[in-house]
Amino acid sequence: MNATATTPARPVNQRRRIAVLRLSALAAAPAILCARAPWTGPVFEVLEVSGVLLLIMAVLGRLWAILYIGGHKNGTVMQEGPYSVCRHPLYTFSLVGIAGFGLMLGSVVVTAAITALAFVIFARTARREEQFLRATFGSRWDDYAARVPALVPNPRLFATAGTISVRVAPLRGNLGDALVFLAAIPLAEAMEGLKLAGLVPTFPVW
Prior knowledge:
Low-confidence stretches: 1-9
Oligomer: single chain
Order of helices and strands: HEHHHHHHE
Number of domains: 1
Radius of gyration: 19 Å
Shape: elongated
Structural class: mainly alpha
């Protein structure tokens, strides 16, 4: 199946996607920094611990996905492991990490807002990627897309082979991307410290 005039002949520019995410984060940073959770004590601690757990889950989930897709991206229709339950697990686990960062700040509203914004960006990027994949793999991709959801996993579909082939170079490069989410933990702590010290103006946000 050949690419048409409306289908990109090349994969989506991932650097552009990352740039959009970074610009969105910078635009939202002032509001996030100034947002103050209206609760303290056990409620805040539960949200904070939940956020840390989600960030760790994001790192482990992205590493899991990279083990399967590393070195094979855009070269095959991966349908095993995390790719058997959703078509874009790297984006899915990134959303989990973003939600975790929001919970660490103690605000449900901030968590929902930044996760929704990231979801829109990832969903649009995924649609563009799938134009390329559909043009490249044709009915094989269509069959896969009809069976497996895009971003919200369906665990009942899980399937995997007994062994997988891993390429070290792509794995090493993507490892750094996954570990970036761990940096969100000290970042959230630093932002909370600034608020408690009264160094930034704040307003309560549930």
